[in-house]
User: What shape does this take?
Amino acid sequence: MPIEIPKDKWPGSVREITLGATAADGGTRTSTVTVGGEKALPYMHFEAQMPHKPVIALEIRDRLPDDWSTLLLEHWGDTAKDPAAWAKAAEATGVELLQLTLSLTDADGNPNTPENAVAVVKSVLAATGLPLLVFGTGQAEMDNVLLVAVAEATQGERLVLGICEDKNYRTIVAAAMANGHLVNGRTPMDVNLSKQLNILISDMGLPMDRILMDPTTGALGYGIEYGFSVMERLRMAALQGDSMTQQPMLVTPGFEAWKTKESKVGKDVPAEWGDWLKRAIHWETMTATALIESGADIVVLRHPESVKRIRVAIDELSAVPEMA
Amino acid sequence: MALSGIQIYKMLPRTNCKDCGFPTCLAFAMKLAAKQVELALCPHVSDESKAELAESSAPPIRLVTLSANGNSVKAGNEVVMFRHEKTFYNMPGLFLRVKDDLSPEAIKAAIAPAEAFKVNYVGIDLTMDGFAVESVSGDPATFAAAVKATRGATKRPLVLISGDAAVMAAGLEQLDGEAPLICSANSDNWEAMADLAKSHKAALTVSATSLDELAELTGKISAKGVEDLVLDPAFRQLNSSLIAATQIRRLALRKNFRALGYPMITFPGDAGDVGRVSVQAAQAIAKYAGFVVIDEFLPEMVYPLLVLRQNIYTDPQKPIQVQPGLYEINNPTADSPLLVTTNFSITYFSVANEVEGAGLPAWLLVTEAEGMSVLTAWAAGKFDSERIAKDVKRFGVAEKINKKQIVLPGHVAVLSGELEEDMPGWEIRVGPREAVDLPGFMRDAL
Ligand code: B12
Ligand code: SF4
Assistant: This one.
């Protein structure tokens, strides 16, 4: 008698969200990306069809970053000095999305300005046809100024504006609402906080199909287990039908992994850590792998070699195997 | 399937004699159901009930232990699908495979660096768990020589791989008094392999590409008296292996399906390309493997894999922490600087390793922050000026140092004002945000 495989029957599903808008929809992107729609836990093809694969975004900056690992700077070389060139090079790696992070200051230490932010975003939009995520500096007051200007200057593009947190969500959400954009709501690794922020954002009137949820993660070795479990719990809550947790999830394993000592430092570390560059790539790839297993819909990476590996992994996981 | 307290109660004598130390049989049954006491406490229970209770209390996923020379690797005994439901218990063993087309010398050379590998992560020594030897020659003598060379190069548990019982027998002859894992029994060779497993007290891998076939095989083999089985749902793609692993674990945990209630082995090494190997191994660690076999020892890959394993298997209810207290780094004197941090292991070791590695003497005050990182503890109100001031007193810090100066982590610079008020007479310094920059700061600014 064949074994009866226990199947989960979930009442809920993840919302489908489309990033970017083509000319037909009032934007200038040459392609759009739709994520979400899951009706089962990740890659359980024998229970439900997975309508969309997770996608990869590469992170670029509005200027040469001061605090990135030299390995990344060496890789990107001079392209990292020009956001448009960087965007083109990033697009060439085959990612579906670009994530542009704005800096607090210019190279000389002067505060960033809305004029500069708008100019950079426009140059990146002109350089590639990919949908774009624009993240602020992480300082709420500065972000309110920069992101509002960016949102207004790019009306209709369906950009994703981030990072939208409890302290600044009002301004960012209002800007997204008025200009046809999306937001990325970030909360610190807590199921209830994620849910609560989604409620606050939707209470302002932004449709739920314009909200991504970023539960925050830690790097491998630096708290990834919390991110992993929070994402599993959020995804289960969504499938169980909790409407305010049904947003596709975005996480930033590139940012987290490249912050660690293992990726940043090549000298005076234990010989057992092995080759520096290879180790750093493993750090980013394995961080991303764990998060994809736990339900990530968008992973933001920094190194093209990691993009290549995660691309292969996503394709393999998303294909329906014969057995299923 | 686990029985409820009431079901267990019905199997007890129901005399309420109190010999077990509980006021009633029901009270004792409830404790049994919660797995808080042993059945042996009741001297009056019938043999029949004993057998039935033992069967129902057997773990849904059998614990399989490989051992050699006092080293052991355990897999199985897991009770949940998701770590947040309780925790994962037995970390998957990481094995390096060598093949018998290598000479004994080449085998020793391949094993040596993996055998010697030891890396410290938050105070825990991470190492490889064992080695696998595979026969590609198909020749018993060649395989025996390879196993012998391997055993000469490591004291850790072994996995022997060959589908040919005669070859396997020759390999097993080399391993006396240990419990290896032999790979694999399939529908063709299962009887001979089961006999070998039995006579050598080895655990046995059962391999098939359908769960039905797998279950049928384990049924036949366990009927022959071989109980320490390991499953190889022989899919080598991320999607199919994830699904198979999930289905097997679900059947064992939710349905108490005995025929698949065993730990699993995976072979990411088969993927060949390092990018795919690393991803498959990472998936195996996150999703239910009991043994993971790789083919190439690459420290830069093994280190993150072992860290991932450590992370996934951390008990979600208790972060790994260190004892609060005043720690001495590099034999500090009364003139050495005082640094303060929290008692989250990752935090403590990030700081301690930097300072120690730089050869700088220092006092490190580790405060009671309920095992949270600097910012988490600060956000949760567990690392504030009041607590720091309290722990400075509690651990008698002032008596150990001459200069009343304390260095805060850069991330909590905001605490300095309050701390000045809470610790009058002390100079509060704000250090760098990341521990990597501490040695430079200590040399230049302190
Ligand atoms: C993992 C994590 C958790 C885990 C807990 C992990 C733990 N055991 O601490 C969980 C999920 C439980 C958690 C919970 C919360 N978290 Co949390 N969490 C994180 C996360 C992702 C990583 C933290 C970490 O482990 N870092 C690694 C360790 C090693 O870093 P560290 O301790 O800071 O140490 C470094 C430096 O500080 C320095 N250093 C350390 N000591 C010293 C000493 C000296 C002298 C010097 C110079 C330097 C130095 O060296 C280390 C290496 O460079 C961060 C975000 C992130 N990606 O960083 C958020 C983060 C810390 N959490 C945050 C918050 C708000 C919370 C919550 C309050 C959310 C909530 N309301 O529930 C709760 C609080 C917990 C509670 N109430 O019980 C915020 C804090 C925001 C802020 N700036 O105040 C963060 C920054 C996320 C964010 N961006 O919002 N969190
Ligand atoms: S010893 Fe046995 S019979 Fe006596 S009270 Fe306890 S459970 Fe009941």
Remarks:
- The two ends of chain A are 18 Å apart (CA to CA).
- Residues B 12-13, 15-20, 22, 25, 28, 42, 44 surround iron/sulfur cluster (ligand 2) (CB under 6 Å).
- Chain A has a mean pLDDT of 96.
- Residues 17-318 of chain A form a domain with the TIM Barrel fold (CATH 3.20.20.20).
